[in-house]
Amino acid sequence: MAFFEMVRTALRTVLQQPVTILYPAQAAKKTPISRGHVVHDGSKCISCSICVKKCPSQAIILNKEAKTWQIDRFRCVVCNSCVDTCPTKCLSMDTQYTAPAAAKGIETFTITYVKPPKPEKKDEQKP
Ligand code: SF4
Ligand code: SF4
User: Fold this and answer.
1) CA quadruple 91, 38, 81, 95: dihedral sign
2) pLDDT for res 19
3) Residue 63 is part of which domain span?
């Protein structure tokens, strides 16, 4: 019985259309929740570090002194957590195809605004 079941499965597989596509020659099906790679808009970033704290794979590096926001593409697991939590919506998911040769390790974006440090609290004066 197992043999006939195997033959039946093999014949069905040979006769049906492939379930995979020749991506990127053939366009992939995209939905509103499709993910691709994270894109950063430096003009909207307020350097709040929320994305850094929410990233589960420590893929984001924020350097306020250098005014840079960096993402390590090889660490990013495309979970969308940073995009969901960014308060200014300066992060988004780009679903366009990226050629493997164009994939970079760490990609750097420049930020225009840097959140000033919190003023130090004055110690209460003892009488
Ligand atoms: S990208 Fe968004 S969450 Fe990350 S530091 Fe900038 S404003 Fe904050
Ligand atoms: S998509 Fe997820 S893993 Fe990638 S940088 Fe954002 S939070 Fe980190």
Assistant:
1) positive
2) 84
3) 34-116
